[in-house]
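User: Can you write out an input/output pair for a complex, sequences first and structure second?

Assistant: Here is one pair. Inputs:
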Amino acid sequence: MSTVRRVLERLPLHLAVIGLCLIWLLPTVGLLVSSFRPKDAVFATGWWTVFRFPLDFSQFRLDNYIQVLTAQGLGRAFLNSLTIVIPSTVIPITIAAFAGYAFAWMNFPGRQVLFVIVVGLLVVPLQMTLIPLLRIYNRVGFSGTFLGIWLAHTGYGLPFAVYLLRNFFGSLPKDLFEAAYLDGASPLTAFTRLALPLSVPSLASLAIFQFIWVWNDLLVALIYLGGTEKVAPLTLRLSAMVQSLGQDWHLLTAAAFVSMAVPLLVFFTLQRYFVRGILAGSVKG
Amino acid sequence: MSDWLSQVLATLAAILLGVAGIAGLFLGLDSLVGLLPQRLQPRVRPWAYIGPALLILGFYLVYPTLNTLYLSFLDARSERFVGLQNYLWTLTSPEMHVAFRNNLLWIVLMTTFSVGLGLIIAVLVDRVRYEPIAKSVIFLPVAISFVGASVIWRFVYAYKPANVPQIGLLNAAIVALGGRPIGWLVDTAVNNFALIAVGVWLQTGFCMVILSAALKAIPREILEAARVDGASEWRIFWQITVPMISSTIAVVATTVVINALKAFDIVFVMTNGTRGTEVIANRMYKEMFSFLNFGRASAIAVILLLAIVPVMAANIRRFQAQEEMR
């Protein structure tokens, strides 16, 4: 009797949690289902009608994916996204790791002031930098190049990366480095053999964060890569497709899912690090 | 096929070049410092380590910010000094008024709903056994790009005339309940709310994860003691939970406010600011690329920065207070 009452009492709680989860999940499920349906079906009936005959697999096909990856140029955009995202993750984290280490464990004049400036730069809106940089980029032929966008993402990601890594390196015990120096280690050895291996979790969460940020970015790509189709990443291609094929849902849904596949994969396999990165950035201590 | 192969090879080469380049830079710098006399090394090495970071920050953030400030006082083609004219236009033109009103709407609604829902969900899932799964579901959109989310939601909002079957989830639900389909993105009474809802869907997971971590840090004994004393769950929530995590709530809310202020991708992709949905950042993009008015675009960017300065100051103060406690 009492267990029945307990279950009944907790029923509203379960309904609320499951209801919210459904609301959060349904839009994405709709996208995924529609991306596998043939064009006529997508236009004639809602995607939820496939669940009338959930085992009838003849209502699904891969045509939409084949078309967006080849005819719509998403295959190339996918490679471009990869070309942009990997160096745009490695370069800022390498630079930030060296800088963070120097800020945490080396003495030099202006150390405090320079770091306070970095903290201030954390919130400068991207928009503030676009016009002057674009002018310089156009003058030196940097716009529409991979090097140009790698460095731009490096600049925008650097304040957060330096801030996070300096705080992490600073929390390592001092005796560790003193012992290493007594044993005759050079600063570079102390950094690469001691500080870096100890901060793998922090580096991983930072890397995942930057990876997802760059992969999902539209504004930076829009400004510095402009209309150059040869180097356009997925977000840029997808946004152009929305404008040109606004109602071709069978293609748009497949294209959107192609652009989401990598971040979702990263998300599901490395979720723990991802959450840790968010926590480290927003909650002190 | 060979075309594909050459593309893949070019991709690999570009990636290798970028990654090897940065590693080589630092190894080179460090061995250069090693060539100096022993005595000088400790004084020079820090600059070799932070030098690249300072150069990049200076070039990509500090210099452009100052330059934009300067450009905002010049005319459209940055040739003539026009005083405060761009700011006057920014603050008085009807287009910008719509943008300011909408950004205010974004700030108030997106912050309230993302933080509010994030907190409610964090409290609710704390009490069920399938918490990790529920949290993953709510958190999932954080990994999706704004462009991807825009496609997802344009499809949810899809509109068809009343006499044919609806293919958009929302209008199908309304028709099933006996209502008339609504053009969510074109009807000026609802389109801003429809856009902000996408923002809430994307940001709630971020708020929930951080608030949930703060909730778990509240000592269980305090909550148990209150329950033993007969306090209702409602009262515990408002008088113990909320005050104890108020600093985290403030941090999360500030982050969402900044995101709302800079809202761009969703509006750009879903409506491009048509039918009264313009926002500041999208307007700036238009001034910059469609009208090539660099003076006005710069003035808009400066206004965005000014709105964020208090947050920047608070950030620095919080950091300095933290340092003193170390």
